[in-house]
Design brief:
Layout (H helix, E strand, L loop, with lengths): L1 H28 L7 E4 L5 E4 L10 H32 L2 H24 L6 H20 L3 H7 L6 H28 L14 H22 L3 H30 L9 H32 L15
Antiparallel strand pairs: 1-2
Helix pairs in contact: 1-2, 1-4, 2-3, 2-8, 3-4, 3-8, 5-8, 6-7, 7-8, 8-9
């Protein structure tokens, strides 16, 4: 049964990697020869549509962001997931499974963003399959970890105050970043300012509805030195590192497509880039530091033999 669960996780991860390769390569390389054009949405606002390739019916901002995400997923996230998969197949240790689990959480976010946030296109079935595999793969990976073993295997002291502050800031900052937009739209009796051609903003849903609460729950469980708290901590730290890598690349794609800073002076562009991207990059650096400390704190054998600390 244990081997069956591990094999299932590895097969699911392999399928996730294959689907990520399909969605990202098509997102980056597929072209229809179309051009950008302006569309008047249901609120009477002019929206510039990308017009070409997989994201032809998406706004130029959403399409360029998605292409930046595809680039990072293809060249960073997928290789890391491949390495984690091979590492877990070989070792099947707490560290290898925790690393694989934390990276699978990133594919859940990526696939949910595509499945719910991208205008319907030829890859819709692939998005659904990727989201389903990522979601259930993450559940299987988490349940394959013996939480009591993980708790007892963390033998080195972690920078608790720093991690407390980090988790609190992530939880509060994500709510503070998006909530004013929603409150303002309600007061003004209109939709979100950046709704463009969409019915909702998936980033607000994921960040405020899942990521922020997870950060605060993790803070509570980490204070109690819970095994689940360590799992959630690894997930939060790894995802923040990925976001820190992704945002600069997304911004480059957005600027290249003319979705950001059109006609603005260089000084304004620099200031906005530093505030928009710089803060997340700094947060990612702290995340990487804490992530390394967490994995180094996990003893390969803990208080028992190495074989006792194999995962399912």
């Amino acid at each position: 049964m244990k081997n069956n669960k591990a094999t299932g996780i590895h097969i699911i991860t392999g399928l996730i990697i294959a689907l990520c390769l399909v969605t990202t390569l098509i997102g980056l390389l597929y072209t229809t020869g179309g051009k950008a054009h302006t569309f008047i949405n249901q609120y009477g606002d002019a929206v510039k549509i990308y017009g070409d390739g997989l994201y032809a019916h998406d706004s130029i901002f959403k399409a360029s962001t998605a292409r930046g995400t595809d680039f990072v997923t293809l060249f960073i996230s997928v290789p890391l997931l491949m390495i984690a998969l091979m590492f877990d197949i070989k070792k099947r240790s707490l560290k290898s499974r925790l690393l694989l689990t934390s990276l699978l959480a990133g594919t859940v976010y990526y696939s949910a963003s595509d499945a719910f946030g991208i205008t319907y296109n030829i890859l819709h079935l692939a998005y659904i399959a990727l989201f389903s595999l990522s979601f259930f793969g993450l559940i299987l990976a988490i349940t394959s970890i013996d939480l009591s073993q993980l708790k007892s295997s963390v033998t080195k002291k972690l920078p608790q105050r720093g991690i407390y502050v980090f988790l609190f800031l992530v939880g509060i900052a994500l709510i503070a970043a998006w909530l004013p937009d929603i409150i303002t739209s309600i007061i003004n009796h209109r939709s979100l300012q950046a709704i463009e051609v969409y019915t909702t903003e998936i980033t607000y849903v994921l960040d405020m509805g899942i990521i922020a609460p997870t950060a605060l729950i993790c803070l509570y469980l980490f204070k109690k030195q819970s095994g689940l708290g360590y799992v959630l901590l690894a997930i939060m730290l790894t995802m923040c590192v990925q976001v820190g890598l992704m945002l600069p690349i997304q911004s480059i794609f957005e600027v290249a497509a003319g979705a950001l800073f059109v006609g603005e002076p260089l000084s304004t562009i620099i200031i906005q880039m530093l505030t928009k991207v710089g803060s997340f990059v700094i947060l990612a650096m702290f995340s990487l530091c804490f992530d390394i400390k967490l994995f180094r704190a996990i003893s390969p054998a803990g208080s028992g033999s190495r074989s006792n600390y194999k995962v399912n």
